[in-house]
Amino acid sequence: MNNEIKNEKVPLTGMTQSELTHLCKEYGEPDFRGNQLFNWIYSQKERNIMKMENLPKILRDSLDENYKVSSLQLSKVNASSTGQTSKYLFSIPSGEKIESVLIEEKKRITVCLSTQVGCALGCTFCATAKMGFMKNLSVGEIVDQFLFLQNASERRITNVVFMGMGEPFLNYGRVISAAQLLNDPDGIKLGAGKITISTAGIVPKIIRYADEGWKFKLAVSLNGTVDKERSKIMPINKKYSINDILSSAQYFYEKTGSIITFEYVLIENKTDSIGDALKLKYLLKGLPCKVNVIPYNSFDDSFQRPDTKRIEQFLNELKSGSFIVTVRWSHGTEISAGCGQLAVMNGDNIEN
Length: 352
Ligand code: SF4
Hints:
Layout: E1 10-11, H1 17-26, H2 32-43, H3 57-66, E2 67-68, E3 73-79, E4 85-91, E5 97-104, E6 109-112, E7 116-118, E8 133-136, H4 139-152, E9 159-162, H5 172-183, E10 195-199, H6 203-212, E11 217-221, H7 227-233, H8 242-256, E12 260-266, H9 274-284, E13 289-295, H10 308-318, E14 324-327, E15 344-345, E16 348-349
Parallel strand pairs: 1-2, 6-9, 9-10, 10-11, 11-12, 12-13, 13-14
Antiparallel strand pairs: 3-4, 4-5, 5-6, 7-8, 15-16
Helix pairs in contact: 1-2, 4-5, 6-8, 9-10
The structure holds iron/sulfur cluster.
Iron/sulfur cluster (SF4) is lined by residues 119, 121-123, 126, 128-129, 165-167, 200, 340.
């Protein structure tokens, strides 16, 4: 493994156990050194090669000359007034910035990870869309967000959601590899059922995901019940309609036995009418699924969250449907860390 850029150390995070074993072999070391290195990076979460004490000094020196553990540089941390939610701004080696969120509740410690810099899908209610698409993150850049946030939290992270910047299914291979590393029983050891991949509805990838039989949870951002209206706020709907998504969700259930969670953002006068709730019940009738309702988090004046009474009316109507309904009141909205609020413009956060 040679450094592609002179003087630029290659990050180790993102490499699998067999890649690390292969690397150690290149330095004349036996196979078990790769396991030790894997353990230091993902289980011990050590960020300094020289502190990996059970590796021979000569190996540490050689690795340290050409490699580094982390690919991210922490630029800024913003914590909400309650301290429950913190937003982390990182620089990646190519200079762009990304954000991740740590949410510490009583029993759940959740991290929301980014998978791309910006996003190409242009959902009109989402701050990330304003950045446009810049690039896909590497496996290491995705997993490293987790390792940073785990080191920052005094408690063990219990859940990971791929719902930060970007459309995970447009960086499919790397997102799956990152989820596998999070799930690896010799490393981070996070259960597959504690990892959720969220898509805006890239139907061919939902089919592929079902065919490949992954055990990570799947969420689809629905946010609409009529194609014409959904296309206005989620342009990807012109390519993959609501019907296409529902068919793929049915296929996913039949293939894997797992249910999809539909995320439904409640936006005032766009998605929040009783008629929308009725249509949603009708569309999802007979499809084993869960609906997670997310009252909208504003980032500018374009869209608003409905008032509490309207939210309750919508929920009351929906709860008589044939599926489980949950509500997610996003945490950290005052630091723009809520759902749909992540964005980095001109090297810094839009609002902070
Ligand atoms: S909501 Fe998700 S898919 Fe849509 S623009 Fe934002 S990041 Fe992209």
